[in-house]
Design a protein that fits this description.
single chain; alpha+beta; 5-stranded mixed beta sheet
């Protein structure tokens, strides 16, 4: 009965988590069907179908789900663990960098309608598979771009490279590509003005040639920094130590015996003194 009521629930009314938190969907999932979660028990299948219909950014914490679904927090926690073990969910943290260069750890709940095995989630943690990214909002472009402004002022640095407005508009996309590859204004100016020939007959042609021939390589992509956590106790760990999203202790495995710690320096010195004293006593007894 609860599963029937849940199937009729309205996901659009579900609250959104704080910015940066909440549900995040993986890419490359199979199209939605009526049998996506048939391999799960009825309760878990109904909850999984509800989660799948939620928008990205939805708050899918146990506490919030209990307010909108006909189950208590304990039952939901058990169901989410089973959904995770089936390969649809992983929870953990990710280090994100803000526009000002500062970084912080964000709690993540990654969702996949298509069941994934532990190897796939391990690759996802390393950044070897694509992740969902919100499209950036459209911004109104300024009348004069950063690249256009640099080219228009180029004659102040090297008068022989003064360009017309038409030249600036034509060459601006080439400068923009430099910026996209991590170059600064100083990098571009240095490449354009160092070692100029005398005289410069065609400034626009020279600038185009240098922007093209000296274009720096694209920066290597930075892999995401992610840590998965045990669904039961929340302990962080490497993906290979969390099969099904649970650590060894929560799966009932015994922790490997720890090697005995080496003796301290005072203990070693005291033991050595005892041995020397015993050897000296034996020599005296034989004498």
């Amino acid at each position: 009965m609860a599963e029937t009521q849940l199937s009729a629930a309205s996901p659009p009314a579900h609250p959104t988590a704080n910015p940066g938190y909440g549900k995040r969907s993986a890419l490359d999932q199979l199209p939605r069907t009526n049998h996506d979660f048939a391999h799960l028990p009825p309760r878990e299948a109904a909850i999984a179908a509800y989660l799948d219909r939620l928008h990205d950014g939805a708050d899918i914490s146990v506490k919030t789900l209990a307010k909108h679904l006909p189950y208590g927090q304990c039952a939901l926690g058990t169901a989410l663990n089973r959904i995770q073990q089936a390969g649809h969910l992983r929870r953990g943290r990710e280090c994100v960098t803000a526009d000002d260069g500062s970084s912080r750890w964000i709690t993540r709940s990654w969702w996949s309608r298509t069941a994934r095995d532990d190897d796939w989630w391990a690759a996802f943690t390393r950044g070897d598979v694509p992740e969902h990214q919100e499209p950036p909002p459209e911004r109104q472009r300024p009348t004069r771009s950063r690249a256009h402004i640099l080219l228009a002022a180029l004659g102040r640095t090297a008068s022989v490279l003064s360009l017309s407005q038409a030249d600036c508009a034509t060459l601006a996309p080439l400068v923009t590509e430099w910026f996209e590859r991590g170059a600064s204004e100083e990098d571009v100016l240095r490449a354009l003005t160092a070692g100029l020939p005398t005289p410069v007959h065609h400034p626009a042609a020279l600038v185009r040639n240098r922007l093209t021939s000296k274009l720096p390589p694209p920066p290597a992509p930075r892999p995401p920094v992610r840590v998965l956590e045990c669904a039961n106790c929340g302990a962080p760990g490497r993906p290979e130590t969390l099969p099904g999203g649970r650590c060894g202790a929560c799966r009932g495995e015994r922790a490997p015996a720890q090697p005995a710690a080496p003796p301290s320096a005072p203990t070693v010195h005291a033991r050595a003194a005892e041995i020397r004293a015993a050897m000296a006593q034996r020599r005296r007894e034989k004498a």
